[in-house]
Amino acid sequence: MANQDWIEIGTLDDIPQMGARVIETKNGDIAVFRTADDQVFALRDECPHKQGPLSQGIVYGNKVTCPLHDWKINLDTGLAVAPDEGCAASYPVKNDNGKIMLLLTANS
């Protein structure tokens, strides 16, 4: 991935710990999450179950709970936690010395 593929979306401080910030793109909203230990993840802001806004869910560990029906989504992969099944698209994101960089190509 070339450097020009990554876009700067803000700083780590722009994302609340154990919370999310929404980035609007031409392909839909992306939720960028920050965990209690400052890891950063990016998922399409849509639960695979009923399309609830994951950005409004509760972040704990490396998971987020959908605010509509309590589905738990793994922030690393976008996969629903068993027994639920489904996947929210995940996006590469990195912390570059406090600057948060996002790649708008979803992971497979």
From TrEMBL:
Major enzyme class: oxidoreductase
Example GO BP: nitrate assimilation
Keyword Protease appears in the UniProt entry: no
Keyword annotations: 2Fe-2S, Iron, Iron-sulfur, Metal-binding, Nitrate assimilation, Oxidoreductase
Enzyme Commission designation: 1.7.1.4
A GO term, aspect molecular function: 2 iron, 2 sulfur cluster binding
InterPro entries to which the protein is assigned, alphabetical: Rieske-like_NirD (IPR012748), Rieske_2Fe-2S (IPR017941), Rieske_2Fe-2S_sf (IPR036922)
Domain Rieske as annotated: residue spans: 6-102
NCBIfam families xrefs: nirD_assim_sml
Protein name: Nitrite reductase [NAD(P)H] small subunit
Species name: hydrothermal vent metagenome
